[in-house]
Fold this protein.
Amino acid sequence: MAKKIAKPEMVLNNFVAKHMHEVNKSQVFVDRKKDAKRGYSKHKQGRYSEEYRPFLYC
């Protein structure tokens, strides 16, 4: 019998699993409810009067 030619196996790399330790890290989040009770707001409202606005309401 003739010898079978061995085909090289294709290696599939999982890039998501390979780099997940670099990307997926734990973070500390800010408690928004406590900040709201203290009076902190992320987007300040009413900082500018109508005179300084670059556009006009019609």
